[in-house]
């Protein structure tokens, strides 16, 4: 092991960016361990035999306002511009999501829609955004009624499927990701940069990891190799003391063998279908808040505008995470509530006792990071580390 200075666990965005930074900027020899048979973490994509780029762990649409992240990633990929649009199946019609002034027009008689539009603009301003839980509490009776309608038709059943609970029982930040928008902008995201890596996320992350100082070992569960001695805060790798750094982007409860109990996650089952038809639906994603056991259907060929004769779609069925069940053992979404946060903090304190361990990513930070958050956070961690002269 003396040949490596840094061991990185996980080859998703977080692990790849930190591996690249240590290899390039600090000239460290880096070993990346990934338990899956591929790099790119949950952003892994591949092309089907019919030429459709499919996202294996659900649709991934890149968007960011973070200039540093955009510039950093642009070293490793060309981009294909793409602005995500989502339709919702509501009372048998397909209407734009997030709920905006066009959705209002589709669901209300003309005069009433105009009256509500004027009120929304007065209250929240042109181009304003308001989380559904806030709109529902509006003191204005018409806006409160609108909030109730949007809550009932768009949020309550979708959230119940996605999280197994009501919108009030999860962090308000979750439903605030999809606010009511006071404009006629039908885009799902409003960030400055919105684009897809032209050769896919797998190629982008392969490019990030493509450095002579980096070795990647796939199909390797690091928790079987890495040990943290809690008596003397020493690190061990493969039974031997390891004096380098460990960058860990997996689950903290797993790292500590569930000492303080399990950190709960929500999982998903993806049901892929390849159809002998050029197109299945009008938009990349159609949400089904009130029908079916799945939450949404995504048709991938729209993303890179691929002119294929066959089309691949995926239906997302939310489910509880269960580490012992191979059909449910991918931890997609941390579940935020106070008890879980407190448990996470216990693990965080344990890991902070180890000077040579850096944690990063959606799993290790137990946060609902988008891709740009994961990259931005990894860059921030590395920069802080460098500034502290801890190289
Ligand atoms: P991950 O991608 O989860 O990577 C962690 C890696 O560590 C994994 O490959 C895992 O196998 C590996 N690992 C864990 N434990 C071990 C171990 N013990 N040994 C070895 N390897 C280990 N973000 C967006 O910006 N836009 C979107 O449209 C979007 N859509 C999403 C849709 C879904 C369904 C989901 C679940 C997420 C979506 N995201 C989206 C979020 C995005 O997936 C994450 O921000 C990103 O993957 C975080 O990267 P990461 O490296 O932190 O984690
Ligand atoms: N949501 C909803 N109805 C929708 C879309 C979203 O209730 O039509 C809620 C739901 O709780 C979801 C959250 O808003 O988990 C965030 O949605 P987003 O599309 O950001 O979820 P992700 O793509 O991360 O799964």
TrEMBL record:
The answer to whether UniProt assigns keyword RNA-binding to this entry is no
Q: What is its EC number?
A: 5.4.99.9
Q: In Gene Ontology terms, what is one molecular function of this protein?
A: UDP-galactopyranose mutase activity
**Ranges for the UDP-galactopyranose mutase C-terminal domain?**
153-368
Superkingdom of source? Bacteria
Keyword set, alphabetical order = FAD, Flavoprotein, Isomerase
- Provide the cofactor list for this protein: FAD
Matching SUPFAM superfamilies: FAD-linked reductases, C-terminal domain, Nucleotide-binding domain
Q: Which family does it belong to?
A: Belongs to the UDP-galactopyranose/dTDP-fucopyranose mutase family.
Name this polypeptide is given: UDP-galactopyranose mutase
Annotated organism of origin: Paraglaciecola mesophila
């Amino acid at each position: 092991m003396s040949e490596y200075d840094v061991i990185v666990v996980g080859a998703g965005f977080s692990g790849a960016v930190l591996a690249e930074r240590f290899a390039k900027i600090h000239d460290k020899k880096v070993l990346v361990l990934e338990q899956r048979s591929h790099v790119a973490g949950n952003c892994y994509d591949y092309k089907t035999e019919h030429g459709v780029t499919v996202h294996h762990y659900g649709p991934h649409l890149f968007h960011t306002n973070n200039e540093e992240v955009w510039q950093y990633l642009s070293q490793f990929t060309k981009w294909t511009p793409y602005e995500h649009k989502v339709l919702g199946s509501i009372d048998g019609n397909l209407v734009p999501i997030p709920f905006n002034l066009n959705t209002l027009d589709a669901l209300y008689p003309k005069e009433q829609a105009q009256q509500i539009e004027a009120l929304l603009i007065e209250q929240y301003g042109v181009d304003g955004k308001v989380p559904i839980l806030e709109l529902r509490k509006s003191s204005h009776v018409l806006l409160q009624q609108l909030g109730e309608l949007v809550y009932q038709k768009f949020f309550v059943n979708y959230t119940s499927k996605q999280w197994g609970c009501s919108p009030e029982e999860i962090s308000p930040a979750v439903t605030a990701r999809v606010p009511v928008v006071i404009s006629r902008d039908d885009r799902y995201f409003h960030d400055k940069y919105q684009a897809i890596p032209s050769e896919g996320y797998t190629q982008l992350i392969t490019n990030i990891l493509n450095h002579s100082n980096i070795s990647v070992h796939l199909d390797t569960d690091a928790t079987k190799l890495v040990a943290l001695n809690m008596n003397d805060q020493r690190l061990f790798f493969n039974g031997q003391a390891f004096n380098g750094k460990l960058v860990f982007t997996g689950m903290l409860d797993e790292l500590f063998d569930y000492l303080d109990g399990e950190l709960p996650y929500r999982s998903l089952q993806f049901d892929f279908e390849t159809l002998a038809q050029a197109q299945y639906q009008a938009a990349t994603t159609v949400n089904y808040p009130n029908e079916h056991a799945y939450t949404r259907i995504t048709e991938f060929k729209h993303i890179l505008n691929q002119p294929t004769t066959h089309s691949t779609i995926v239906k997302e069925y939310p489910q509880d995470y269960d580490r012992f069940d191979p059909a449910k053992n991918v931890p997609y979404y941390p579940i935020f509530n106070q008890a879980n946060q407190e448990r996470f903090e216990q693990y965080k304190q344990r890991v902070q006792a180890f000077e040579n361990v850096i944690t990063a990513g959606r799993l290790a930070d137990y946060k609902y990071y988008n891709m740009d958050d994961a990259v931005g956070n990894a860059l921030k961690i590395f920069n802080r580390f460098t500034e502290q002269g801890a190289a």
